[in-house]
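Researcher: For the record, we're logging two predictions in this thread. I'll number them. Prediction 1 follows.
Model: Prediction 1, sequence and structure:
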Amino acid sequence: MKRSLLVLLLVGLVGCSSTPTTNDETKNWSAQKIYSEAKSMLNSGSYEKSIKLFETLEARYPYGRYAQQAQLEVAYAYYKDNEPVSAVAACDRFIKLHPNHPNVDYAYYLKGLANFTEDQSLFARIADQDMTERDPRSASSSFESFRELSTRFPDSKYTPDAIARMKYLVDALAWHEVHVAQYYYKRGAYVAAANRAQYALIHYPQAPANELGLAIMVRSYDAMGTNDLRDDALRVLQKNFPTSKYVSGNFDRKKPWWRFWEL
């Protein structure tokens, strides 16, 4: 019985030792070869495979221009593979390791793009989503990356697009604040509504959302009985948005026309 068990054990050990190991076809590849294959995978849309190869390249050849370029390319691969968190992390790592690299401006731009893509539907979702539940951190992070790019590298070829996206993001962030103010107003939290609308007005003074924000301030101050603040907000609204639907209508001495606004 013992002999039979020993034979089975030996057979099992032989079987395990003869199990074929995974063949790594990149084992003897040069840094240039791995980079070339990874780049080809990236261009063909095989993002996961390209990421694996770029990471293999950096692990196997951690020094030199191919490793540096691989760090930047892997960030782009993550971005294209709809992995914005990994893309941002890769960009941050590249910026930290190579702050004076000739292409560090692209790292800032790509970081902004990754966060921008994650939050680009902010406007589209306004009608479908309660904006108090919308986390604006991606938009804020994207704005900061684009701002740093445009400040540090004003002559970069990526700066004009970054500035255009910054304008969009300012509008998006302003709309977020104003819709939160609207949420508070509709629930009778007039102090919170007025403060949130005022925050948008101060931090995003040129944003179109301030038309609604000022209207919320007027109605909130009126509801609280702070008539001076109400009249000040109304004057600002009338001056900056003279054709607004919130500054036109039939005046009623008993009930001012602006009280008919639907917020």
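Researcher: Logged. Prediction 2.
Model: Prediction 2, sequence and structure:
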Amino acid sequence: MSRAAAKKPVVRLAREQRVDEILVAARDVFCEKGYEASAVAEIAARMGVVEGTIYKYFASKRELLLKVLEHWYEEMFGDYARDLAGVSDARGRLRLLVWRHLRSIRDYPLLCRLMFREVRSEQDYRGSELHEMNRRYTQFLLEVIEAGVRGGEFRGDLPAALLRDLVYGGIEHGTWNYICGRGELDIDAMAEQLTAVLCEGIARTAEPGLKQEMERLSQIASRIEKALPKK
């Protein structure tokens, strides 16, 4: 093996380590000061390096913010597939996804605020790597709903994409005060409440014919009761 080939993995490892260090420092500064008030020079100072070192790895502060959020999404993906495999029923799987999303908000409220305020509304978001990661993230919920429909636990006449938007939109609205630093967030209670509301709304009801038959039998029973002599 040549000396150049032997050095390659070491160089790559050093670069990855430096990038990780920059992302950690940038996350801290962005969360403390917000995007607009954060300076690349301050991020560099946190690391004890000159500002030019940051620009060796990231072309701009905006690119750095996007990479910080992409790194966060990678952490959130975590062991989703493994955890979901351990839950058999659709309602339980739905609750797990809601709870884990709430946990990410509870643990990183300032990152959520950056995502909602600084990134998602901008023109460079749609079609970006971060947008694709968010799509993959919410796909877990779509798959759980669709599996619940196939298994007969959920109704099939409601668009899964609409239910996904109700879940994530509802969570964003319900946690906004917490994200902005006002109040507390009980993720267990909120996960239970959201799951109950959603599942009772999409739970499969009796077949129309069966429902009509039950109503007819109820009416017959009522007439018989009225016809019986009073005790």
